[in-house]
Structures are given as structure tokens and as C-alpha cells.
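3.2 Worked example (two chains)
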Amino acid sequence: MKERLEALRAEALQELQGVTGPQELSDLRVKYLGKKGALTEILRGMGALSAEERPVIGEVANSVRGAIEAVIEEKNAAFRRAETEERLRSETIDVTLPGSPLPAGAVHPLNKVAQEIEDIFIGMGYTIAEGPEVETDYYNFEALNLPKNHPARDMQDSFYITDEILMRTQTSPVQIRSMKAMSGKSPLKIICPGKVYRRDDDDATHSFQFNQVEGLVVGKGIRMSDLKGTLLQFVQEMFGKQARIRLRPSFFPFTEPSAEVDMTCSQCGGKGCRMCKGTGWLEILGCGMVHPKVLQAGGYDPEEVTGFAFGMGIERIALLKYGIDDIRHFYTNDLRFLSQFARM
């Protein structure tokens, strides 16, 4: 058996010298040292040896195993070094080469306009309030003087999740939540920017999801003239000092009196053009004095305080500010369109 072990050593070491790759080396390890390898097969015959022969043969077997394993480990280390050197050669970077140019990004026009609106109102002392996009019917409608079966609900075809839960159709629920959080304290001056959802067909001027900014002021002695002055300052900050506004009577369930606000056309300055259909005016937002029932729902006494509210679509402001004729441009991710705003 000793002769067989020595012969196995010589055979294995000779074969290992000709190994050319890691896989071949792994195969030889299995061939000679595996559970069914040549060394194991020889050692199965040790049971027939005498007690004096077993230690001698065991020592020889360990020597053979150690010699084979040493060569295998040496070869493995050599293959790893060669692999590392090859990777370093193939992945070498010439640091003197110019870098790959990356296209400059730009703030999305809707985000740009939203930030401008926020900055203008923050400059007038307003704070930003936020609320959930998934709302209850109470906050979205009932607290805003729109009880069940109110006909004005038909103007806001809604995405209902359950009978009492829906995707908010306006950011006005944030106004109610903010009033309740104040527990009747005043003054309160907030704007509420955010996404809103209505079941509408997508076209050049409508979308099922769009962005609004609503404002609310509650305090003692708040008047309609305060509302008009606030909106005039906003319009002039956004569109230029030459801009003018006018208020037309309208109806909203949550304000009384209510008004639609027009501004002089941003394209022709009020002279009349295709954009304003020759009138010189463009509709920009809705507003009014907060209805007493809405004040009560928010925890205020309408005999003690008054307030005004207004709301505008950010897409509408962006269309007017940049002279864009189709709201869908904001959502199609066309880089040719969006890259224009990198220069603004």
C-alpha cells in the first residue's frame, strides 16, 4: 500500500504541473482528494492492515495528501494573481482623457412655477400647509358647505375609494384641517399646494390629475379689499408690474361673495390677441370671502372673524406665464420641451 501511495503522489504532482486553469485544477482536486478520489480508494484498504502497519501507512497517506494540497494551493494562488493582473490591465482608466459629457438637467416648469408661487406668498407672510391626498368626504365636501346631494358636487366628478373616502378634488380640505388645528385662534395665513384628482378626459386644458395652490386668511376685520390687494400683488410679482386684474361675480359654495379673477393678457398686455380671444383678459383663478358655515366647520365664530380664500391651478399659471398652449406637454417627458426651461 505504501508503494501505491507513493505512486499516487508522483502521478498527482506530475498531472498538477500541467494544469492550465482553475476548473481543471478543481477537477484534479476531486479526482485525487474527493470522497470518491484515488487517495480515498487506497485508504479503504487500511482495515486489512496489521496494527503495526496502520500508523506507518497513515503517516505516508497524510504526507501524500499534504503534498498534493500544497501544490493545489500554490496553483490556485497563481491563478488568482493572474486573474487580478488581467483585470487591472483590462480595466485601466486613462485619467488624462476628457470625461463623458452629461446633459444638464432643469427644474420641471411646474415645479419652477410652484416654487415661485410659494416664494411670493411666503414673502407676504403666508406659511405652507399640507394634507393627505386621500381624503374623507367630510373634509373634501361637507365641511366646505357641500352636503350630500349638493348639485355643485357634479362639477367635481370624483374618484371614490369607498362611500366616504376619495382622492381629494381640491386642496381646500387642508384649509379645514388647518383651521381646526388652530382651535379658533387667529390670524391664520396659509397656502396649500398639492396634487388633486378629478375624473376628467385628458385634453389640451384638462387632466385627471393636476396641481393646485389654495390660500386662506382668517382674522378680525378681513375684507374683500384685502383679497383684491393680495391677488394684485401676486399677479404683478408673477407676471410683471404692468399686469392688472378684475373681479367678476361668480358662485362657489364655500365662499360668499365669490368672484372669478381675470388678469390682463400676458401676451398682448390687454390689447387683444389670439390667446385672449381678442378680449385682452385671461381668467386666472377663483376667490371669495369664506362662507360663515365653512368658518364654523373650522372652529371659528363667524361673528368674531372673517376670512378670504382663493385657488388656482399651477398648470394654468404655467400655461399663461410661458405661453404654452397644451397642458399635456407637462406630462409627456419630451426632453425637447423640458430642456427649454434649463435656460430660464
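3.2.1 Second chain
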Amino acid sequence: MKFNYPKSEKLKSQTTIGLLFSEGKSVAKYPLRIVYVEDPESDIKIRMGVSVSKKYFKKAVDRNHYKRLLREAYRLNKHILNENLEKKYAMMFFYQTKEKLNFHEIQEKTVILFKKLIETEADS
């Protein structure tokens, strides 16, 4: 299993991001949230973007720190999604709190959130 996050897996398309916010479904496990939409045109199984709100962290250095933590948590745990989801998805990963959690807490919440996402998609 490769634990990488190559450029091809990064969500950068403005049209896909717009589609996420207009038609996407959401799953949350405080303080993390994933908004996702099926992306059948993509040749990659999962394309992921990360976001930290300026509302909660005014300084760019703080936002960048939490974006790095989110990307790392995704990179280490993306195998959970790849092994259990059949369709192709575009996703946006959000950090939504003022609380400054450490990496270990973020990683635990990420695993719980990914499992919740898999259950949600299995039900539909």
C-alpha cells in the first residue's frame, strides 16, 4: 500500500468544486466534515481537497498548519476509503472549529469520519 498523495489526487477543478457545494452530500464528525459528490468522469477513484475556514483561524500560518494536518491524516488513512468505496468521488475535507486539536486527535476523528462516510454510501 502506497501512502502518497500525488498531484493527480488533489481536487483543483473549479467546476467540480462548484458542483460539490451545489449538489454535494455531507458527512460530519465534529470538528471535521466531508462534502462529496460522485465523479464518474474522473480517472482517479478519489480526488480530495482540504479547507480551513478563515473565520476560525485569521492567520494564514494557522490555516496552513491545519491544512497540512488534514492532508497528512487523509494520506495515512485513504486506504480505508479506497478499499470500501466502489464509485469514484470528488471530496472536500473541512476543519470546522476554533479548537486547536493535535494531529493524533485529528487522525482519530478522520478514521471515524471515513467509516461514517462508507456506512452512509453503503445505505444509499
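3.3 Remarks
Residues 60-84 form the longest helix (25 residues).
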